[in-house]
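Case 334 in the screening queue. Each case pairs one protein sequence with one candidate compound; here the compound is adenosine-5'-triphosphate. For every case the pipeline is the same: read the inputs, emit a complex structure as C-alpha coordinates, and attach any notable structural observations.

Predict complex for case 334.
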Amino acid sequence: MSYTSFDNVGLVKVLSFFQTHDSEYLSGQDLSDVLKISRVAVWKHIKKIQTLGYKIESKQKLGYRLVDDTEKLLPWEITRDLKTENIGKRVYYFEELDSTQNFAQQIAADKKENGTIVIAEKQTAGRGRLDRKWTSPKGGIWFSLIIHPKFDVSSSTLIPILSAVALSKSIKKSLGVETEVKWPNDIMLNGKKVAGILVDASVQANNIDYLILGIGINFDIDTKRLEKRLSKTPNFYGVNSLRENNNNKTPPKILLKEFLFQFEKNLASLNKGEKAKIVKEWTKNAAGIGRKITINTSNGKISGVSQGIDTDGALKIKTKKKIERVLVGDVDLS
Ligand code: ATP
Ligand code: BTN
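Case 334 output:
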Protein backbone atom coordinates (compact mmCIF):
# COMPACT_ATOMS: atom_id res chain seq x y z
CA MET A 1 0.00 0.00 0.00
CA SER A 2 1.31 3.48 -0.81
CA TYR A 3 0.14 7.07 -0.44
CA THR A 4 1.39 10.47 -1.51
CA SER A 5 0.82 14.04 -0.38
CA PHE A 6 -0.69 14.99 -3.73
CA ASP A 7 -3.43 12.40 -4.24
CA ASN A 8 -5.96 10.68 -1.93
CA VAL A 9 -7.90 13.95 -2.01
CA GLY A 10 -11.28 12.53 -0.93
CA LEU A 11 -9.88 10.65 2.02
CA VAL A 12 -7.89 13.65 3.22
CA LYS A 13 -10.96 15.89 2.91
CA VAL A 14 -12.95 13.63 5.22
CA LEU A 15 -10.07 13.22 7.64
CA SER A 16 -9.35 16.98 7.80
CA PHE A 17 -12.98 17.61 8.61
CA PHE A 18 -12.73 15.23 11.56
CA GLN A 19 -9.44 16.76 12.64
CA THR A 20 -10.86 20.28 12.64
CA HIS A 21 -13.92 19.12 14.63
CA ASP A 22 -11.92 17.56 17.40
CA SER A 23 -13.90 14.86 19.30
CA GLU A 24 -17.28 16.12 18.00
CA TYR A 25 -19.79 13.60 16.64
CA LEU A 26 -20.45 14.13 12.93
CA SER A 27 -23.24 12.39 11.09
CA GLY A 28 -22.70 10.67 7.77
CA GLN A 29 -25.33 12.93 6.24
CA ASP A 30 -23.63 16.12 7.48
CA LEU A 31 -20.28 14.96 6.15
CA SER A 32 -21.87 14.11 2.83
CA ASP A 33 -23.60 17.53 2.59
CA VAL A 34 -20.59 19.62 3.62
CA LEU A 35 -17.99 17.74 1.61
CA LYS A 36 -20.29 17.21 -1.37
CA ILE A 37 -19.64 13.50 -1.68
CA SER A 38 -22.08 10.61 -1.45
CA ARG A 39 -22.83 8.91 1.88
CA VAL A 40 -21.38 5.70 0.50
CA ALA A 41 -18.14 7.52 -0.33
CA VAL A 42 -18.06 9.02 3.19
CA TRP A 43 -18.49 5.56 4.70
CA LYS A 44 -15.76 4.08 2.50
CA HIS A 45 -13.34 6.83 3.45
CA ILE A 46 -14.10 6.36 7.16
CA LYS A 47 -13.36 2.63 6.89
CA LYS A 48 -10.09 3.37 5.11
CA ILE A 49 -9.13 6.02 7.67
CA GLN A 50 -9.68 3.46 10.43
CA THR A 51 -7.45 0.91 8.74
CA LEU A 52 -4.70 3.56 8.68
CA GLY A 53 -4.61 3.55 12.47
CA TYR A 54 -6.86 6.52 13.26
CA LYS A 55 -9.41 5.79 15.94
CA ILE A 56 -12.92 6.75 14.85
CA GLU A 57 -15.84 5.84 17.10
CA SER A 58 -19.38 5.58 15.90
CA LYS A 59 -22.55 5.95 17.94
CA GLN A 60 -26.08 5.39 16.76
CA LYS A 61 -28.01 8.59 16.09
CA LEU A 62 -24.93 10.74 16.80
CA GLY A 63 -22.55 9.65 14.04
CA TYR A 64 -18.76 9.39 14.03
CA ARG A 65 -16.00 11.09 15.95
CA LEU A 66 -12.22 11.03 15.80
CA VAL A 67 -10.72 10.05 19.15
CA ASP A 68 -7.09 9.40 18.27
CA ASP A 69 -4.64 10.15 15.46
CA THR A 70 -2.45 7.53 13.84
CA GLU A 71 1.25 7.05 14.54
CA LYS A 72 1.92 6.28 10.87
CA LEU A 73 4.01 8.84 9.00
CA LEU A 74 1.33 9.42 6.37
CA PRO A 75 2.06 12.13 3.80
CA TRP A 76 -0.73 14.51 4.83
CA GLU A 77 0.35 14.25 8.47
CA ILE A 78 3.83 15.37 7.48
CA THR A 79 2.79 18.25 5.22
CA ARG A 80 0.13 19.58 7.61
CA ASP A 81 1.52 22.69 9.41
CA LEU A 82 5.02 21.94 8.16
CA LYS A 83 7.19 24.99 8.86
CA THR A 84 9.56 24.59 5.90
CA GLU A 85 9.53 26.42 2.56
CA ASN A 86 10.54 23.53 0.36
CA ILE A 87 11.87 20.48 2.23
CA GLY A 88 9.26 17.77 2.81
CA LYS A 89 6.45 19.42 0.85
CA ARG A 90 6.08 16.35 -1.38
CA VAL A 91 5.89 13.00 0.37
CA TYR A 92 5.71 9.40 -0.82
CA TYR A 93 4.78 6.83 1.79
CA PHE A 94 5.03 3.05 1.50
CA GLU A 95 3.96 0.40 3.93
CA GLU A 96 6.86 -1.69 2.70
CA LEU A 97 9.72 -1.04 0.30
CA ASP A 98 13.07 -2.63 -0.52
CA SER A 99 14.83 0.64 0.25
CA THR A 100 13.64 4.25 0.23
CA GLN A 101 17.01 5.12 -1.35
CA ASN A 102 16.19 2.92 -4.35
CA PHE A 103 12.77 4.46 -4.88
CA ALA A 104 14.16 7.97 -4.44
CA GLN A 105 16.80 7.22 -7.05
CA GLN A 106 14.12 6.50 -9.64
CA ILE A 107 12.46 9.89 -9.25
CA ALA A 108 15.32 12.13 -8.07
CA ALA A 109 16.32 13.64 -11.43
CA ASP A 110 12.93 15.30 -11.87
CA LYS A 111 13.11 19.00 -10.87
CA LYS A 112 9.83 18.89 -9.02
CA GLU A 113 11.24 16.32 -6.59
CA ASN A 114 13.72 18.77 -5.05
CA GLY A 115 12.90 18.54 -1.33
CA THR A 116 10.75 15.39 -1.67
CA ILE A 117 10.84 12.71 0.98
CA VAL A 118 10.20 8.98 0.61
CA ILE A 119 9.12 7.11 3.73
CA ALA A 120 8.71 3.39 4.38
CA GLU A 121 7.18 1.81 7.43
CA LYS A 122 9.49 -1.13 6.92
CA GLN A 123 12.33 -1.93 4.47
CA THR A 124 13.26 -5.36 3.21
CA ALA A 125 16.68 -4.36 1.80
CA GLY A 126 17.66 -1.23 3.72
CA ARG A 127 21.15 0.03 2.98
CA GLY A 128 23.74 1.44 5.37
CA ARG A 129 27.05 3.20 4.76
CA LEU A 130 29.89 1.31 3.10
CA ASP A 131 27.55 -1.19 1.45
CA ARG A 132 26.28 -2.54 4.72
CA LYS A 133 22.79 -3.74 5.45
CA TRP A 134 20.40 -1.60 7.44
CA THR A 135 17.86 -3.52 9.50
CA SER A 136 14.55 -1.66 9.23
CA PRO A 137 11.64 -3.22 11.10
CA LYS A 138 8.34 -1.48 11.86
CA GLY A 139 8.66 1.20 14.53
CA GLY A 140 11.61 3.01 12.98
CA ILE A 141 11.66 6.21 10.96
CA TRP A 142 13.16 5.20 7.62
CA PHE A 143 13.24 7.89 4.95
CA SER A 144 15.15 9.44 2.07
CA LEU A 145 15.32 13.13 1.21
CA ILE A 146 16.06 14.35 -2.31
CA ILE A 147 17.89 17.63 -2.79
CA HIS A 148 19.12 19.48 -5.85
CA PRO A 149 21.79 21.62 -4.21
CA LYS A 150 22.98 24.98 -5.49
CA PHE A 151 26.55 24.52 -4.30
CA ASP A 152 29.39 22.47 -5.81
CA VAL A 153 30.91 19.15 -4.85
CA SER A 154 33.36 20.63 -2.35
CA SER A 155 30.57 21.94 -0.14
CA SER A 156 28.52 18.77 -0.40
CA THR A 157 30.94 16.88 1.85
CA LEU A 158 29.41 18.83 4.74
CA ILE A 159 25.90 17.55 4.01
CA PRO A 160 26.15 14.47 6.23
CA ILE A 161 27.61 16.65 8.98
CA LEU A 162 24.87 19.28 8.81
CA SER A 163 22.26 16.52 8.68
CA ALA A 164 23.65 14.94 11.84
CA VAL A 165 23.53 18.33 13.56
CA ALA A 166 19.92 18.84 12.43
CA LEU A 167 18.93 15.36 13.59
CA SER A 168 20.53 15.66 17.01
CA LYS A 169 18.93 19.08 17.51
CA SER A 170 15.50 17.92 16.43
CA ILE A 171 15.64 14.92 18.78
CA LYS A 172 16.41 17.30 21.62
CA LYS A 173 13.66 19.77 20.62
CA SER A 174 10.89 17.24 20.01
CA LEU A 175 11.64 14.59 22.66
CA GLY A 176 13.91 16.36 25.12
CA VAL A 177 16.51 13.61 24.63
CA GLU A 178 20.19 14.57 24.53
CA THR A 179 22.24 12.70 21.90
CA GLU A 180 25.82 12.91 20.61
CA VAL A 181 27.13 12.89 17.06
CA LYS A 182 29.79 10.36 16.18
CA TRP A 183 31.92 10.82 13.07
CA PRO A 184 31.09 10.62 10.26
CA ASN A 185 27.33 10.63 10.74
CA ASP A 186 26.03 8.41 13.49
CA ILE A 187 23.77 9.65 16.24
CA MET A 188 24.47 8.10 19.59
CA LEU A 189 22.35 7.81 22.71
CA ASN A 190 24.05 6.66 25.91
CA GLY A 191 26.99 5.39 23.87
CA LYS A 192 24.87 3.30 21.47
CA LYS A 193 23.76 3.91 17.89
CA VAL A 194 20.28 5.37 17.63
CA ALA A 195 20.38 6.75 14.06
CA GLY A 196 22.49 6.66 10.93
CA ILE A 197 22.82 8.80 7.82
CA LEU A 198 23.85 7.86 4.30
CA VAL A 199 24.31 10.04 1.21
CA ASP A 200 24.03 8.89 -2.41
CA ALA A 201 25.06 11.44 -5.00
CA SER A 202 24.67 11.89 -8.75
CA VAL A 203 27.57 14.03 -9.84
CA GLN A 204 28.67 15.20 -13.29
CA ALA A 205 32.02 16.99 -13.66
CA ASN A 206 31.99 19.33 -10.67
CA ASN A 207 28.22 19.69 -10.58
CA ILE A 208 25.79 17.83 -8.41
CA ASP A 209 22.58 16.73 -10.15
CA TYR A 210 21.07 15.58 -6.91
CA LEU A 211 21.83 14.14 -3.52
CA ILE A 212 19.73 11.53 -1.78
CA LEU A 213 20.05 11.59 1.94
CA GLY A 214 19.04 8.37 3.67
CA ILE A 215 18.14 8.61 7.31
CA GLY A 216 17.37 5.74 9.64
CA ILE A 217 16.15 6.46 13.17
CA ASN A 218 15.51 3.71 15.70
CA PHE A 219 12.42 5.34 17.12
CA ASP A 220 10.47 2.55 18.78
CA ILE A 221 12.15 -0.75 18.12
CA ASP A 222 13.14 -3.83 20.08
CA THR A 223 16.83 -3.17 20.74
CA LYS A 224 17.57 -6.55 22.32
CA ARG A 225 16.45 -8.34 19.19
CA LEU A 226 18.36 -5.98 16.94
CA GLU A 227 21.53 -6.22 19.02
CA LYS A 228 21.39 -9.99 18.85
CA ARG A 229 21.27 -9.82 15.08
CA LEU A 230 23.97 -7.15 14.69
CA SER A 231 26.49 -7.90 17.42
CA LYS A 232 28.98 -9.55 15.06
CA THR A 233 28.84 -6.89 12.32
CA PRO A 234 31.47 -4.23 11.68
CA ASN A 235 31.14 -0.91 13.54
CA PHE A 236 28.77 -2.44 16.08
CA TYR A 237 28.85 -0.65 19.42
CA GLY A 238 25.32 -1.31 20.63
CA VAL A 239 21.91 -0.16 19.44
CA ASN A 240 19.49 2.19 21.13
CA SER A 241 15.91 3.26 20.49
CA LEU A 242 14.54 6.72 21.23
CA ARG A 243 11.26 5.76 22.81
CA GLU A 244 12.80 3.23 25.15
CA ASN A 245 14.58 6.16 26.73
CA ASN A 246 11.70 8.54 26.73
CA ASN A 247 8.47 7.69 28.45
CA ASN A 248 6.38 10.36 26.79
CA LYS A 249 4.23 9.43 23.85
CA THR A 250 5.35 12.14 21.42
CA PRO A 251 4.46 10.78 17.98
CA PRO A 252 7.23 10.17 15.43
CA LYS A 253 5.83 12.79 13.01
CA ILE A 254 6.75 15.57 15.46
CA LEU A 255 10.39 14.51 15.28
CA LEU A 256 10.38 14.09 11.51
CA LYS A 257 8.83 17.54 10.93
CA GLU A 258 11.27 19.19 13.32
CA PHE A 259 14.14 17.50 11.49
CA LEU A 260 12.93 18.80 8.11
CA PHE A 261 12.79 22.31 9.56
CA GLN A 262 16.25 22.14 11.15
CA PHE A 263 17.71 20.58 8.01
CA GLU A 264 16.36 23.37 5.80
CA LYS A 265 17.85 25.96 8.15
CA ASN A 266 21.27 24.31 8.04
CA LEU A 267 21.13 23.92 4.27
CA ALA A 268 20.43 27.65 3.91
CA SER A 269 23.42 28.27 6.16
CA LEU A 270 25.65 26.16 3.89
CA ASN A 271 24.27 28.00 0.85
CA LYS A 272 25.47 31.22 2.47
CA GLY A 273 28.94 29.67 2.86
CA GLU A 274 28.75 29.36 6.65
CA LYS A 275 30.84 26.20 6.86
CA ALA A 276 32.63 27.16 10.07
CA LYS A 277 29.31 27.67 11.84
CA ILE A 278 28.16 24.15 10.90
CA VAL A 279 31.46 22.63 12.03
CA LYS A 280 31.18 24.51 15.33
CA GLU A 281 27.67 23.20 15.97
CA TRP A 282 28.75 19.64 15.16
CA THR A 283 31.75 19.95 17.49
CA LYS A 284 29.55 21.04 20.42
CA ASN A 285 27.74 17.68 20.33
CA ALA A 286 30.54 15.41 19.13
CA ALA A 287 31.72 12.34 21.01
CA GLY A 288 35.40 11.63 21.54
CA ILE A 289 37.07 14.95 20.71
CA GLY A 290 40.34 15.33 22.59
CA ARG A 291 40.31 11.62 23.40
CA LYS A 292 42.33 8.73 22.10
CA ILE A 293 40.38 6.98 19.34
CA THR A 294 40.98 4.46 16.57
CA ILE A 295 39.73 4.86 13.01
CA ASN A 296 39.21 1.78 10.89
CA THR A 297 39.82 2.65 7.24
CA SER A 298 40.12 0.49 4.13
CA ASN A 299 43.90 0.98 4.47
CA GLY A 300 44.06 -0.18 8.07
CA LYS A 301 43.74 1.32 11.54
CA ILE A 302 44.89 4.75 12.67
CA SER A 303 45.12 5.52 16.38
CA GLY A 304 45.59 8.94 17.90
CA VAL A 305 43.84 11.85 19.56
CA SER A 306 40.71 13.14 17.82
CA GLN A 307 41.01 16.80 16.83
CA GLY A 308 37.48 17.10 15.45
CA ILE A 309 36.61 17.88 11.82
CA ASP A 310 37.70 20.44 9.23
CA THR A 311 35.39 22.38 6.90
CA ASP A 312 35.39 19.45 4.42
CA GLY A 313 33.94 17.19 7.11
CA ALA A 314 37.19 15.20 7.30
CA LEU A 315 38.22 13.87 10.72
CA LYS A 316 41.57 15.12 12.01
CA ILE A 317 43.54 12.72 14.15
CA LYS A 318 46.86 13.45 15.87
CA THR A 319 49.16 10.45 15.73
CA LYS A 320 52.69 10.21 17.10
CA LYS A 321 54.03 11.54 13.80
CA LYS A 322 51.55 14.06 12.41
CA ILE A 323 47.96 15.15 12.04
CA GLU A 324 46.13 12.87 9.59
CA ARG A 325 42.93 13.71 7.72
CA VAL A 326 40.48 10.89 7.18
CA LEU A 327 37.51 11.10 4.81
CA VAL A 328 36.07 7.59 5.03
CA GLY A 329 36.05 5.15 7.93
CA ASP A 330 34.51 4.07 11.23
CA VAL A 331 35.50 5.49 14.58
CA ASP A 332 36.09 3.20 17.53
CA LEU A 333 35.69 5.16 20.77
CA SER A 334 36.44 2.35 23.18
P1 ATP B 1 26.65 -9.23 5.57
O1 ATP B 1 25.73 -10.39 5.55
O2 ATP B 1 26.82 -8.56 4.23
O3 ATP B 1 27.95 -9.48 6.28
P2 ATP B 1 25.51 -8.06 7.94
O4 ATP B 1 24.04 -7.83 8.11
O5 ATP B 1 26.12 -9.20 8.71
O6 ATP B 1 25.89 -8.10 6.41
P3 ATP B 1 26.80 -5.55 7.68
O7 ATP B 1 25.92 -5.21 6.54
O8 ATP B 1 28.27 -5.78 7.39
O9 ATP B 1 26.23 -6.78 8.46
O10 ATP B 1 26.73 -4.44 8.86
C1 ATP B 1 25.58 -3.94 9.43
C2 ATP B 1 25.94 -2.59 10.06
O11 ATP B 1 24.80 -1.77 10.22
C3 ATP B 1 26.54 -2.64 11.38
O12 ATP B 1 27.42 -1.57 11.54
C4 ATP B 1 25.29 -2.49 12.30
O13 ATP B 1 25.67 -2.10 13.56
C5 ATP B 1 24.51 -1.48 11.57
N1 ATP B 1 23.04 -1.45 11.65
C6 ATP B 1 22.16 -2.04 10.82
N2 ATP B 1 20.89 -1.76 11.13
C7 ATP B 1 20.95 -0.95 12.20
C8 ATP B 1 19.97 -0.30 12.99
N3 ATP B 1 18.65 -0.39 12.73
N4 ATP B 1 20.41 0.45 14.02
C9 ATP B 1 21.71 0.58 14.29
N5 ATP B 1 22.70 0.01 13.57
C10 ATP B 1 22.33 -0.75 12.54
C1 BTN C 1 24.40 4.07 8.35
O1 BTN C 1 25.06 3.14 7.88
O2 BTN C 1 24.57 4.47 9.51
C2 BTN C 1 23.35 4.74 7.51
C3 BTN C 1 22.01 4.11 7.63
C4 BTN C 1 20.95 4.74 6.76
C5 BTN C 1 19.64 3.99 6.77
C6 BTN C 1 18.55 4.69 6.03
S1 BTN C 1 16.94 4.06 6.37
C7 BTN C 1 16.25 5.03 5.10
C8 BTN C 1 17.23 5.01 3.95
N1 BTN C 1 16.98 3.87 3.09
C9 BTN C 1 17.99 2.99 3.13
O3 BTN C 1 18.01 1.92 2.50
N2 BTN C 1 18.95 3.43 3.94
C10 BTN C 1 18.64 4.72 4.52
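Case 334 observations:
- The pocket of adenosine-5'-triphosphate (ligand 1) is lined by residues 128, 132-135, 193, 216, 218, 226, 230, 233-236, 239 (CB under 6 Å).
- The chain is about 30% helix and 30% strand.
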